[in-house]
Amino acid sequence: MTFRGSLFLSKKAQLGIVFLMGALALLAIVSLIFSIAQKTGDSEEVVKAVFAEEVRLALNSLISVPGDGLIQLPQNEDYNITEFTVSLHNGYVEVCSSCEIDYFTARKGFHLPEDYEARGTVKEQEIICLVKDAKVLRLEDCD
Amino acid sequence: MAPSSFRLFKLNKKGEANDANIPAVMLYYMMASFIIVILIFGFASILTGWQNQVSEFPDELKGEIIALRFSQSVDCFAYSDPVSGKVYPGVIDLEKFKDSRMDTCYFTGVDGQDFFQFELSLPEYKKTVETDNNYRNLIDHTIEKQILVYDEGKFVPTKLFIYVQTRI
Hints:
The complex is a heterodimer of chains A (about 140) and B (about 170). By secondary structure, chain A is α+β, with helices and mostly antiparallel strands.
């Protein structure tokens, strides 16, 4: 490409600039792709979704227990839930970090037998307890 | 000599694009930018799909855990001693084995198409119960359990078949 009015560069230098710009653009694109991949790999969205499912499975297990019961979560020490808020409602469990934004909330639904109730919210705890007390399922601190 | 329509794309002797080729060069860069943006979005959507796949639990596990309640919970079909109140997990009370009891045990209602549905069958007694009307006999997998049935004062060993429908 010839740049008219370019007083300082010869034609060979102009070609070099085009190549340099192309290389920089390619570097920017590759960096962007790596950044997206890394962010996805470290993504807490996966941890939230997995933990919400774990809470749901634990809750369904507790429903089948005759009498009272308690389950500590997470069962796997490899992942960290201290940045999350976990809340239990009648019909679904929510795990969120930026709880004001619904998009970043992992939500899993479940169905309770008649007369059962589920409630409780726990914020930024390393371990949480899911407790069954007669027909009430509560999420609470383990302390 | 190249056809006139190709002159726009032809470079000069030094291989440089001159003023006459600027539309062609601009078109190239526009097309390249568009394709690169499409590729980046495609890559991001592949990663999102992978993310969903990684965080998914097997349907067989989810079905098994939900189905535990049918034979274990007194609020479903598990037998309990009427005098002492003791619950016998793994023992199904044949008197409870009805659709009406299933509605109090596991009822999904209007959003049931997104949830698991079940059919329970005791072939030796020719009895079946189904979850609500979202069960459409679209069986994904079957759970077979060895249980006891409480029938007229007797505990009888038999098999319980649980047909699992994961989605409509």
